[in-house]
Amino acid sequence: MKGEVAPRVHLARRNMLVGLDHGRTTVDNPMTQLMARAEALEEKDPGVLTVSLHAGFTPADFPEVGPSVAVTGDGPAARYRTIAEAYMHFAWEQRHFDSNEYLGAAEAMGRLSTLADGAGPVVIADASDNPGAGAYGDSTFLLKAMLDAGLEKAAFGMICDPETAVQLTKAGVGADVSVRMGGKVDPAFGPPLELSGQVAAVTDGTYVAQGPRWRGVIQRLGPTAVLRVGGVDIVVASKRIQCTELETFTHAGIDPSQKAVVAVKSMHHFRAAFAPIARHILIVDSGALATKDYNRLPYKNLRRPIFPLDIN
Asked: For position 117, what pLDDT does the model report?
């Protein structure tokens, strides 16, 4: 506005839906490597006003989806576009990199027996039913696998099922109940389970988050209850939310640090609160709506061809 610079944005893309390790910044990966290069470039080159790296959002369905690099330079010089294209070329060359290992639900149960004992729980994150990615939060694939495995000292956070939550709260703490839980939005992504158990807790679903992600924010799950089925405590909520906070459990009387296994519906943001208490973390793609099997998703508006759907 003062006329001291004449910013021009130079945008670079490739035909890719996935890249830059989904934007993760907690490990050494293509995203953090490019961020370091960008910071160094901004420091030494006064003409480069800012470099913006975008990993994109894979469940989105519009032509501009996917990773991009935007270099804002002082003026329209072609060298700024060259920088953007060079950074984007690096993203393309590293397109297959993914710092997560995605396990199936049954595979994750098998992995549990191979992990060394220690303090804290094994945290299992169902990335494919993460409400933060647009999933319904009511998939039952992972929950069924945990129940079939006969896990003890386990907690599951959470199933979004308003109908069942109300049924449990009306029954009250200590009641033995039979319910039809989960899978009510679209059973294709995890059908309802017929379960019998005991109501272990009833809450209004309101708590103040204390973790690094949402500290101080009031989260409201609506009428919420804990159904204990065998050795698994299942948090059943009326509203869907990505499980990133220990308080999702503790407000309902569950101490996740004292469990052997804790399941959360989240892709990455759970790590800030749960990694400090976890002895191991497993990432699961159970086959819910936010699956990494992108061929299962009904994309209609992407530019084509695109990696990884049409291009390897």
From this structure: 84
| Contact predicate 3/11, CB 8 Å | no
Whether 118 shows a pLDDT value over 90: the answer reads no
| Three-state secondary structure string covering 195-263 | EEEEEEEEECCEEECCCCCCCCCEEECCCEEEEEECCEEEEEECCCCCCCCCHHHHCCCCCHHHCCEEE
List Cβ neighbours of 170 (8 Å cut-off, separation of 6 or more).
none
- Give the rounded distance of the alpha carbon of 200 from its chain centre: 27
Q: Is there a single domain that holds both residue 70 and residue 113?
A: no
Q: What is the pLDDT of residues 121-153, one digit of tens each?
A: 999 999 999 999 999 999 999 999 999 999 999
Do 17 and 120 belong together in one domain? Answer: no
Sign of CA dihedral 216, 217, 222, 225: negative
Same structural domain for residues 175 and 46? Answer: no
Count of structural domains within the chain: 2
Can you tell me whether residue 264 is helix, strand or coil? strand
User: Are 219 and 280 within one domain?
Assistant: yes
Return the biggest CA–CA distance within the chain: 72
Distance, CA of 111 to CA of 164 (rounded, Å): 31
Q: CB of 156 within 8 A of CB of 233?
A: yes
The answer to whether residues 127 and 38 belong to one domain is no
Return d(Cα 263, Cα 265) in angstroms, integer.
Answer: 7
Torsion angle in degrees (nearest 10) through CA of 165, 167, 173, 177: -120
For 49, the domain range is 7-93
Pairwise CA distance, residues 255 & 181, whole Å? 23
Q: Which tens digits make up the pLDDT trace of 54-78?
A: 999 998 999 999 999 999 999 999 9
233 and 148 share a domain?
Answer: yes
pTM of the model: 0.89
Sign of CA dihedral 79, 82, 86, 88: positive
